[in-house]
Amino acid sequence: MIVPNHTDCRLVEVSYNPDLESFEEIEAPIIAWQLDPGCDWLPVSLLGSLDGLAWAVIEPPGRAYTWDTVFATRAEAVQELRHQAKRLAGVDP
Known about the structure:
alpha+beta, seven-stranded antiparallel beta sheet, 7 strands, 40% strand, globular
């Protein structure tokens, strides 16, 4: 089931390129939430599938959360996402 997003939440995604030793950060609006029985809600954005990506939901005025952690600020979330992105890229942070 897809439910339209009316919360003004945004999605931030961080990836790591080991060849360039650099991070890429993309932020996009969440356009809907995917609700499947017995599963956590998943944000739907124009970024596509979130499988294998380091991402967090940013709530106004800036609190953020991942599956298992709530961050007081967007900056704290991005710092954690950078660690996750390196692990996902096969680099031990």
